[in-house]
Amino acid sequence: MTATGVARVPDRRSAAEVLRDVHDCLLVAYGPQHWWPGETAFEVIVGAILTQSAAWTNVEKALANLKAAGALSPQGLHGLSEGEIARLIRPSGYFNAKARKLKAFVEMLHVRFRGDLERLLTLPRDELRTLLLSTHGIGPETADSIVLYAAGQPSFVIDAYTRRMFTRIGLTPSRDSYEGWRALFLDALLADAPMFNEYHALIVAHGKAVCGKTPSCDDCVLREGCRTGKSPCRGESLV
Q1: Percent of the chain residues topping a pLDDT of 70
Q2: Complete domains list, the chain, with CATH
Q3: Is the previous residue joined to 181 through a cis bond, with omega within 30 degrees of 0?
Q4: Residue among 231, 222, 198, 232 at smallest CA distance from 18
Q5: What gap in Å lies between CA 16 and CA 32, rounded to an integer?
Q6: How far apart are CA 134 and CA 155, in angstroms?
């Protein structure tokens, strides 16, 4: 039992058993996903901020603009004004707000670490996450994406795909909050950054391919172990 309470699990299996089974099934079905797309840790961080409320194809256009302007580095971005950043990241949407977020991140990096990204990313996981969450524009999902994909530390990313898929399966935390869902994974699984990386990517792949707002249960590799997949009303959006 944790501070978030005991998870509700289907078929009397433990949360760990369900989570491992789902991971293994998705890995066989979709194969390694090779996430996160990005050539450098800083590009991953910028992408994690830009992808808020944006399609990845539009994020790629914004990243390409930053790269062409020589601004896809802590030093390059720090040297631009919010207005200049907003112009470059316009394809990602909400560009003024996201420019403020990017500027806040590089200012924090400059003030606290003299622009040294490696010093930031080698902080202990919980200290790093707390610092990110205290930075303007970085919420829990973005913070965990940075911790996992840029710093390579084991923090599980919870997104809409994760909540939807596991609610349909019947595995949920007792408290339906971001931290409740995150604790469900962290408490049940060994802290393994590469596995967390792969698992989250597989959840996203499955969510996009099959387990959308209206699920395609007949095509689902998890159908036999899923409460929604076995339901006669499974074609409806249940979550």
Answers
A1: 91
A2: 10-33+157-230 (1.10.1670.10), 41-150 (1.10.340.30)
A3: no
A4: 222
A5: 21
A6: 17
pLDDT one-digit tens code per residue, 55-82: 999 999 999 999 999 999 999 999 999 9
Do 115 and 84 meet the contact criterion of CB atoms below 8 Å apart? no
Structure tokens at 84: 């200049």
Segment 178-183 long-range contacts (CB within 8 Å, at least 24 positions apart): 178/140, 178/141, 179/4, 179/140, 180/4, 180/5, 182/140, 182/144, 182/155, 182/156, 182/158, 183/2, 183/3, 183/4
What DSSP state is assigned to residue 39? Answer: S
Give pLDDT tens digits for 81-97: 999 999 999 999 999 99
Per-residue tokens: 24 = 């293994």
> Rounded to two decimals, what is the model's pTM?
0.91
Give 134-202 as a DSSP string: TSTT--HHHHHHIIIIIS--------HHHHHHHHHHT-B-SS-SHHHHHHHHHHHS---HHHHHHHHHH
